[in-house]
Design a protein that fits this description.
Order of helices and strands: HEEEEHEHHEEHEHEHEEEEEEEH
CATH topology of the largest domain: Aminopeptidase
Organism: Celerinatantimonas diazotrophica
Strand order of the largest sheet: 1-2-3-5-4-6-9-7-8-10-16-15-12
Family: Belongs to the AspA/AstE family. Succinylglutamate desuccinylase subfamily.
GO molecular function, one term: hydrolase activity, acting on ester bonds
Structural class: alpha/beta
Shape: globular
Helix content: 25-40%
Enzyme class: hydrolase
Catalytic activity: N-succinyl-L-glutamate + H2O = L-glutamate + succinate
CATH class of the largest domain: Alpha Beta
Mean pLDDT: 95
């Protein structure tokens, strides 16, 4: 029997360390298992090889509350039986203790501790990364199906493109056209294609488990209770359509609506003196021309090369050695078409 009947998020925030296993049958006949704090597996009564093993994660950063609230609503509908899934689901509420503290992280950026990086420390975040990765591994091994993972976030600052996705760099694997079309059904027409390996959760699922995965940014950080979840209506509709149908034809990519970018480089914070040459509230995807000064660091100047380029995720306060910003270059329609056909 589950220790809650609805609003799991409220239970989690008052029991962030409750790791006791519990299970129940949902009104739709699915089996739900609470496998740890912030981790739930939902198994349909019957599923076929055409189904998918789907991981939905939110709250890897504790103050990114909109996707956390959305995931809680989705779970509520599964608990009530108003939503039924034909696919095995793993729902992960990433960092409960940071949610309670209303902070992005407590000591370390959890989204830089995957792909085995959790072995490099023993903080709460290192332990949580290992835990989340273990649950994901067990889930994907348990269900020998096509693997999907959507890691849902909100950004620190505003953005020229309110919603955007980051596609992990898996060089030997072509981009999945159906998944890119699915993102458009989620009202995510902007995609950044990464240029190298990382230690993010979505890169972990893609590189370790061969999942089709994305980091999906869904607006700007706000406190619990201050989100307008109607702005996630398209994503909500697409996810519900995904889980309630064995197969969905997402159609073709609408290139005329695409805003796709190739990541070209990262700015790494190498010392305490990194300073950006723009306002703290500069919007993601603000464009800079060739030669424009972006930042100063260690007495050196960082300028745009081979511009114009846009700046995404600038944050001069990250730990030394971590990414302080990425630079991206807009792709033409022909480049977009070549990317998905190569």
């Amino acid at each position: 029997m589950l220790p809650f009947t609805s609003d799991y998020l409220s239970y989690l925030l008052t029991h962030p360390s409750d790791s006791e296993y519990a299970q129940a049958e949902l009104p739709g006949g699915e089996k739900i298992e609470l496998i740890g704090a912030g981790a739930l597996v939902i198994t349909p009564k019957h599923f076929t090889n055409h189904c998918k093993a789907i991981v939905l994660s939110a709250g890897i950063h504790g103050n990114e509350t909109a996707p956390i609230e959305w995931l809680n609503q989705l779970l509520d509908d599964l608990l009530k039986g108003t939503l039924r899934t034909h696919h095995p689901l793993l729902l992960l509420f990433g960092h409960p203790n940071a949610m309670i503290a209303a902070k992005r992280e407590l000591e370390f950026n959890l989204n830089r501790l995957f792909c085995g990086a959790w072995h490099q420390g023993n903080s709460l975040e290192h332990q949580r990364a290992a835990q989340l990765a273990g649950w994901m591994s067990d889930f994907y091994e348990r269900f020998a199906l096509e693997r999907l993972h959507y890691d849902l976030h909100t950004a620190i600052r505003g953005s020229v493109h309110e919603k955007f996705a980051v596609a992990p760099y898996i060089p030997q694997r072509p981009h999945n056209l159906s998944q890119l079309a699915f993102l458009q059904h989620c009202d995510v027409n902007c995609v950044l294609f990464y240029h190298q390996s990382t230690q993010t959760f979505s890169y972990h699922s893609a590189s370790v488990h061969d999942a089709q995965s994305f980091t999906v940014e869904l607006g700007q950080v706000k406190p619990f209770g201050h989100n307008d979840l109607s702005r996630l209506r398209a994503l909500d509709s697409a996810i519900r359509r995904l889980v309630t149908h064995v197969r969905v034809d997402w159609g073709t990519v609408r290139y005329q609506q695409c805003h796709w970018y190739q990541v070209t480089e990262e700015i790494i914070r190498q010392d305490e003196n990194l300073e950006f040459n723009f306002a703290d509230d500069l919007a993601n995807f603000t464009l800079f021309e060739e030669g424009e000064l972006l930042a100063t660091q260690g007495g050196g100047l960082i300028r745009v090369k081979d511009g114009p380029k846009a700046v995404v995720f600038p944050n001069a306060k990250v730990a030394i050695g971590q990414r302080a910003a990425i630079l991206v270059k807009a792709m033409s329609r022909s480049q977009c078409q070549h990317l998905v056909n190569s």
